[in-house]
Specification:
Order of helices and strands: EHEHEHEHEHHEHHEHHEEHHHH
Number of helices: 14
Oligomer: single chain
Strand order of the largest sheet: 3-2-1-4-6-5-7
Helix content: 55-70%
Radius of gyration: 28 Å
Strand content: 5-15%
Distance between the termini: 36 Å
Shape: elongated
CATH architecture of the largest domain: Alpha-Beta Complex
Amino acid sequence: MELTILMPCLNEAETLATCIGKARAFLAESGVRGEVLVADNGSTDGSQRIASEAGARVVDVPRKGYGAALAGGIEAARGRFVVMGDADDSYDFSRLMPFVEQLRRGSDLVMGNRFRGGIAPGAMPFLHRYVGNPVLSFLGRLFFGVKARDFHCGLRGFDRARILALGLATPGMEFASEMVVKASLAGYRIDEVPTTLRPDGRSRPPHLRTWRDGWRHLRFLLVHSPRWLFLVPGFALVALGALAMLVIGVHSLEIGGVNLDIHTLSYAGAALVLGVQMLLFAVLTRLMGIRNGWLPDAGTASHLQAALTLERCLVAAVLLFLTGVAMSLYAVWLWSGQGFGELDPRQTMRWVIPSVTLMGIGGELALAAFFLEALRLPDARR
């Protein structure tokens, strides 16, 4: 069997028979040997009976959630290829040949592009069309190099074995993002074909919740990209904080009539501490992701663990901390020169703020080194 047309279902009695009819008509007219599979997620409106009477095979998926229903359906599919789409009659299951042809050419994942194929009036809410989808699609391209312009199209086809090999696990709406992200991280070939979107045929509200599910997608993208969540902003904060500390630590700086002095120096120190923390999180998150299988290992883990040994990190941490202590002692020596009386903060704080910053960074690095050492411990479950 070449193709499984998969429809996740939760109370879709109004539109399910129409979708199955279009899908079966496509199989009959195209000559593609396939099946229509409905992954039911606990419908209480008779959707299971409707699907069976319309000629579809039904598999019950007890675990709740859009992603759980799709994962159960993919597992139960008999086709080499799977084309999945919502059972609300918003996608045209009678026009699936572009997906099949692209899969036959060797694509691992074929995304529909509704912006190229056409979006009927009222088919996509304003926020989804002009804010949510473009922003999340842009972040997907930026974070993971995915070339898809419609990152969240629900009509997509894929090689079943290749997608099963990814170990997709999220049960909710973010399953759609997980599929694209992990396929990209694994180096899969991802292509797009135009598809259309029309208003769904249901009288009830959709299962999708704009803000809740949008946040879940965004959260998934960020967590799976330590580079953009931690590394890039961390480098920016370290660079800005270090530059400001080096300049203002020597003397005040005037820019456009604005005088930057010790108050700015304190913010520079905070930026430096936060930036270093983010860089450490970037390393630890990447190693944790590789260890637990949700980030690929292109030799990164072994190189990082070989370079960042506990002993090296502790030596660096101690040197930073002792440098901070030395600067603090110098500030105390300046104070003693004034008989431990009143001091000019513009003089002493240029030593105190950098010293506190260096001691804080030294402590951060030492703690991160022990956390990294914990990640090296073997997983007893394996």
